[in-house]
Design brief:
The protein is an alpha/beta fold. The chain contains 14 helices and 20 strands. It is globular, with a radius of gyration of 23 Å. The relative contact order is 0.17. The structure holds flavin-adenine dinucleotide.
């Protein structure tokens, strides 16, 4: 099946690119699962943009660079931040109902909140469910557009490159993608003049993650296998407090619980432990400090979790301030007005990814990328809250603009080989996949989490090597399924994270290792070359 442009992913980055491209060309959007299964629909806080008269681009740039611990590319940071007001305007045109409030002169203006690390109020939002409103507006516009075809239930397996041409021309071009139709089990070859990767992050490589189930690093792994460089994969952001529950592994307990008096307690010693880590700020220390403290208690005492306790506050106060969390926890048998909540830190955001330039171009001709699957230079060693949706909109549009501006230089795709259907046997051992999936997530959590050491990283690397052989063998023999494709990508992502972490001989931003606790004077990207 031949198309003008293929966009892989229907989140904020993918649909922004698709809508901009559809002004002039026909676009196919492929998504695994449903069209709303990415992280975009889950975003809560909002989108950062300089919209207040007292704020400046320079302030936002500075805040972003401080959070990123010097690893950001200033050119990229400026590029994104200066385009933020335009991105918000476009979303308003698409019907996103951002909250408003009366300004000093009594006029209705966008309501701006402030989040950790921001020196000003600059977060536009739709209550506490911004992502869902944005996803719904983008999807509605895409569904209505005559030049956009949306195909859900397609798990992309590998990019189609010069090697898949019927007659190999020696070109290093990307011509599209092989995608599994989840309903029929057949693999389709979709070709196009250009392909945009917008597949989100790799958070599910960790046992605890706030990311949706499909965040298995597929795009990063596909681009790597096709020959693109990836950068700064060791920079994984962790949120300090996620509910510890063996069934519900990704329920966030907002930082506001600590803000309103919640205390962190070691369930074994029954002591408030933040006094040993940051006696001045206690539970209100920055995210990374609190996350490291919790991780340290868990490792030191061999715990599964620590307690977050707000039961000393009046029950009405707790119910009033945290209605959603209170209700959700009650459903799981925890009454937070009377007892502590078991919490662990959880992976929250993938800062690194496929390397792109300001036009969203990867190393491979014909392949663009946008959003959480990329390393654009915006986040550096740590993402500033609410900058990530912004990155999706800016780079989704930048990639589309570059493709359209250079349309005549994109050749028609050649004939390519169909997917090799010789592996017709269905595996009757789903347990192998499940077991491996659980094992990766567990050792990544234990050995490649918040506090790292070279020894732990090497242990993880050893296991990755063994599993890669096992999964490779399995992959070579059985018909592909979404679970198997994801397992392969999860393993590939884990490998890239560990390799990157081993390369960085310093602690910076999100990468903290006991073997190299100092920060070097010069900040350098960790770039892996296939
Ligand atoms: C709980 C939570 C809260 C957050 N809150 C905020 C916030 O307030 N502000 C903020 O800026 N950011 C926030 N983030 C981060 C932000 O939501 C994400 O970084 C952003 O939405 C990523 O968008 P994306 O388009 O790159 O990817 P996603 O929205 O994750 O979309 C990925 C798409 O790719 C598809 N896909 C993946 N693999 C394949 C494959 N193999 N084949 C086909 N399709 C595939 C998926 O189906 C999906 O359609 C939050 C994240 C989480 C998890």
């Amino acid at each position: 099946m031949t198309h003008d442009v293929i966009v892989i992913g229907s989140g904020g980055a993918g649909l922004t690119a698709a809508l901009a491209l559809a002004e002039q060309v026909k676009v196919l959007v492929l998504a695994k699962g449903t069209l709303t299964s990415g992280s975009t629909a889950w975003a809560q806080g909002g989108i950062a943009a300089v919209l207040d008269a007292g704020d400046t681009f320079e302030n936002h740039v500075r805040d972003t660079m401080v959070a990123g611990a010097g690893l950001n590319q200033r050119e990229t940071v400026e590029f994104v931040i200066e385009r933020a007001p335009h991105a918000i305007d476009r979303l308003i045109q698409l019907g996103v109902p951002f909250n408003t409030a009366k300004d000093d002169l009594g006029a209705e203006a966008l309501h701006l909140t402030r989040e950790g690390g921001h020196s000003h109020r600059r977060i536009v939002h739709v209550d506490d469910a911004t992502g869902w409103a944005v996803q719904a507006a983008l999807l509605k516009a895409a569904e209505a557009h005559p030049n956009i075809t949306l195909l859900a239930g397609r798990t992309c397996i590998d990019l189609i490159t010069g090697h898949h041409e019927e007659r190999y021309s020696g070109s290093g071009r990307v011509w599209g993608v092989y995608a599994l139709d989840e309903a029929t089990g057949k693999v389709e070859a979709h070709t196009a003049r250009a392909t945009v990767l917008a597949t989100g992050g790799a958070g599910r490589v960790y046992q605890f993650s706030t990311a949706p189930r499909g965040a298995t690093g597929d795009g990063i792994a596909m681009a790597w296998r096709a020959g693109a460089r990836v950068g700064n994969m060791e920079m994984m952001q962790f949120h300090p407090t996620c509910l510890y529950n063996l069934e519900v592994k990704n329920f966030l307990i907002t930082e506001a619980v600590r803000g309103e008096g919640g205390r962190l307690i070691n369930p074994r010693t029954r002591k408030r432990f933040m006094e040993f880590y940051d006696a001045g700020r206690m539970e209100l220390a920055p995210r990374d400090v609190v996350a490291r403290a919790i991780d340290s208690e868990i490792k030191k005492y061999g715990l599964d979790y620590v307690h977050l306790d707000i039961s000393h506050m009046p029950a009405d106060f707790v119910r009033e301030h945290f209605p959603t969390i209170h209700e959700k926890l009650l459903g799981l048998g925890i009454d937070m007005t009377r007892e502590p909540i078991p919490v662990v830190p959880a992976q929250h955001y993938t800062c690194g990814g496929v390397m792109i330039d300001l036009d969203g171009r990867t190393d491979l001709p014909g392949l663009y990328a946008a959003g959480e699957c990329t390393e654009s230079g915006l986040h550096g060693a740590n993402r500033l809250a609410s900058n990530s949706l912004l990155e999706c909109f800016v780079f989704g549009e930048a990639a589309a603009s570059h493709i359209l501006a250079n349309w005549d230089s994109f050749a028609e795709p050649p004939k390519v080989r169909p997917w090799d259907e010789s592996r017709v046997t269905n595996s009757d051992e789903e347990v192998v996949i499940k077991q491996n999936w659980t094992e990766i997530r567990r050792f990544m959590w234990n050995y490649v989490g918040i506090v790292r050491t070279t020894k732990r990283l090497e242990r993880a690397q050893h296991r990755i090597k063994l599993l890669t052989e096992e999964v490779g063998d399995y992959y070579g023999h059985f018909r592909v399924t979404t679970d198997l494709i994801e397992l392969r990508n999860l393993l590939q992502s884990a490998d890239l994270i560990v390799k990157s972490a081993l390369r960085r001989h310093e602690s910076r931003g999100l990468h903290f290792t006991l073997d190299y606790p100092q920060t070097r004077s010069v900040a350098k990207d960790t770039v892996l070359v296939p």
